[in-house]
Amino acid sequence: MPKLLAPKGTYDILPERAKCFRKIEALARQIFAEYGYGELSTPIFEYTELFQRGIGETTDIVEKEMFSFTDRGERSLTLRPEGTASIVRAYIEHNLAGSGGVGKYYYYGPMFRCEAPQAGRYRQFLQFGVETLGSSDPRVDAEIISLAVNFYRRLGIADLDVNLNSIGCPECRPAYRAKLIATLQPASEKLCRNCNSRLERNPLRLLDCKNPHCQEVTKKIPLITETLCPDCRDHFEVLLTLLDGIGITYRLNPHLVRGFDYYTKTVFEILAGDLGAQNALCGVGRYDGLVAECGGKPTPGMGFAAGVERLLMVLEARNLLPQVKGSPHLYLALLGEKAQQAICPQVIRLREAGFLVETDLLGRSLKAQMKAANKANAILTGVVGEDELTAGKIIIRQMEAGQQESIPLTDLEQYLKDFFRTTNISEK
Ligand SMILES: [Zn+2]
Ligand SMILES: [Zn+2]
C-alpha cells in the first residue's frame, strides 16, 4: 500500500512544536488586547468574488494561487488566501460602521495559497493581523507599526528593519504614474516581460520586481514623496514625527509599493535583519479605498498581516524559539495490575483538581517508569506497589531535592496542594 502523506505544501505540528506555536499566539493575542483590538473571526472560506474585489483580479494571488471550488449550488467558493478582505466584508455585513467610532479588529488563523512550496512558505499557513477601520489619522498608522515592532521585539528579535513609504492617493498618484512611465519607457527593452506588460497599466508594480535587470532600471526612479498632494504629504510627515517620538527606527524605501488604487498613503514592511525579502516578517499599510471597493460606504482603513511560519524560521535561526516548560506536577509509578487499577480514579480526580499528572500506561518496570518520570521532567514522583496499596500509602519523591517520604494515599491531593503552594516551583 502506498504511504499516506500530508498534502504537498502542508505540515503537521507535533506536540513539542505546538507549544511554540501556542506561545507565539498567546503573545500576539496579549499585545492585540493591550492595543485595544478585538478578535473578529471569519469563515475559512468565502465566495470567490470577495477576493476578486478585495485583493484585485490581476494580482498573483487571485490569478493563480487561490484554492477555489464549486459547491453543490454551483457557487464558487475559495479558501481564504488572506485576512483583510473577510474583515472588511464582515464590517460591512454587520454594519459595524453604524455604531460610530473606530473599529479595531484582529484575526489569527490558517490561510491557503496554491504556491510552489519553499522554505517558510506553505499552501496552508498561519497568518495574523489587525485592521483599524474608520479613521484616517496618522496616529493609527503609527499605532499599527509600533504594535508590530513591539511584538517582534518582545520575541527577542533586535535587528528589525522597518521599511516605510507613502504611495499617495488617487488624487496625486496619477501624476507620479505618468512621471514613472516617462522615466521607464525609454529603458523598456531592458525590462522583463512581466514588467513590460505592466508598464502602461500599473507602473508602480515594476518597483518591486525581483529581476536584477529591472532593478537596475528602476534604481533611478523619481521619488513619489516629491509628488504627494498636501494631504498625503502632511499625513506622511506626521507619521514620521510620531515614529521618531515612539523611538522606532525606520528606512524610507521608495520601492515599497502596492499596485492597487484602494491602497493609499502608508505602506510598510518589517524584515528581520539583512536576511532578504524572503524574511519579510509582516507588512501592508493603509487602504482608504478598500471598504468602498467591497461595497461599503467610503471608510478609511489600515492594517498589517504577519506570517507565523517565517517568524518561526527567523526565531530558530537566532536561537530565540520560546522555551516552554510543561513539567508534570506528579509522575505516578504504579507497580502491578492491582495498583494500576486502584489508583486510576485518583489520577483522574487529581487532574480535575488542576494538577498535571502523568502515569505509566504500559505496565513497565519501576526502573523504566522512573526513567520516564525523569524524561518528562516531573517535579514529584509517586510510587505505589502492592505493599503500599495494602497499607494505603504512597511514596513521594521530590525529584530535585532527592527527598522521599511515605504519606497516606488519602492525603495525596492535600499534599500536592500544600507542596505547590509553598514551593517556588512554577506550576506549569
Ligand atoms: Zn494624495
Ligand atoms: Zn521585471
Give a verbal description of the structure.
- This protein is α+β, with helices and mostly antiparallel strands and 428 residues long.
- It has two domains: 15-172 and 228-317, 2-Layer Sandwich (BirA Bifunctional Protein, domain 2); 330-422, Anticodon-binding domain (Rossmann fold).
- The chain is built from 15 helices and 16 strands.
- It has helices at residues 15-34, 48-54, 60-65, 84-93, 138-154, 173-184, 193-198, 212-218, 230-246, 290-293, 308-317, 337-352, 366-375, 386-391, 412-422, and strands spanning 38-39, 45-47, 68-70, 76-79, 103-112, 124-133, 160-166, 250-252, 266-272, 280-285, 301-307, 330-334, 357-359, 380-384, 393-398, 404-408.
- The strands form three sheets. It has an eight-stranded mixed beta sheet with strand order 1-5-6-11-10-9-7-8, sandwiched between helices. Strands 13-12-14-15-16 form a five-stranded mixed beta sheet, sandwiched between helices.
- A hairpin with a 5-residue loop joins strand 3 and strand 4.
- The structure holds zinc ion (2 copies).
- The site of one zinc ion has 7 residues, from helix 7.
- Residues 168-169, 171-172, 228-229, 231-232 line the site of one zinc ion.
